[in-house]
Amino acid sequence: MIEQEKEQNLNEINQENPKSINGFTSMRHQVANEIFTTEDVYIKKLTILANEFSNELINFAKNDRSFISEKDIKAIFDSIKSILEVNFQLYSELAICMNPWNDEAKIGKAFLQFIPFLKIYRNYIENYDNTTKTLEKFAKTPKFSSWAQEKKMEHNLLDLPSFLIMPVQRLPRYQLLLKELVSNTDQSHCDYTDLVKAQEEITKVNNFVNESIHKRENDAKILAIQKKFSNKALKDLVAPHRKYIYDSPLHKLYGTKKIKLHFFLFNDIIIYGTESSGSYTLYRIMKINFCSIEEGDPQQLQFFIQNMDKKYTIFAESKEEKRKLD
């Protein structure tokens, strides 16, 4: 019922949209119109995702237990429905600003009311890779492939992945459009202050989402490294402050022999050990605060790690690997 009301409201708004106006009154009007029209398209596609695609996939799941589970489908599309709820509110506010257009329209104010809710995008974007991997697993089955091709033809060659990536792309798009609107709004304009603030706030949201994604990816990488060590000494490798930087096979000098080891560099520690069949045995953990790096013979791709207790002679395997360590 709610979705039907939204569709009806959407149609009413579109009927009121002054498409008969030839041209734009200003660059500000043109940019504002781009924000509104792209939001219109975005809302319509989100509605297709939240209703048509979601319902049909759930029916698939109910009728075929070998298919993706109903739980997985709901996990994907519940976020889409939440995003649709929030964005429809923004769309409604933008429609008031645009119909009819008035150069005093407060686009910035409309965005400021909407921005606090944008963090709901975080959960969707963080899980986007898992979503696509889950669907890819079933995309090769004849039944799903046939359905996906049918949907693609129905929606002007837009396939399911093209719909699913839209929320990922929308936040950066807002940032660019608001920046352009600010640059085409005079500083004395009644909307200017709100526009600047809206641009700043949406940049913060973008940064917040990106940092969350990077943090999650970083922790996943560190956990994967931890699991490769046979020793239990690395059970607490994942830590809130720790960032993975780089890892590479290097050669350490023991007496007169070079022994191949695998080094892992983090922002606070260096760890290394021997590799065997994809797993590692830990040799040592060194704290970065107590280490210094000195250059050695460049012809031998040599450098030294000075720790508190001793100096280690290390050799890179190639010039490229050595440059990464510089």
TrEMBL record:
Q: Which residues form a coiled coil?
A: none
Q: Give GO cellular component annotations, separated by semicolons.
A: cytoplasm
Q: What are the residue boundaries of the DH domain, all occurrences included?
A: 27-212
Q: Name one GO molecular function term.
A: guanyl-nucleotide exchange factor activity
Instruction: Set out the biological process GO terms recorded for this chain's protein.
Output: intracellular signal transduction
- Any idea what this protein is called? Faciogenital dysplasia protein
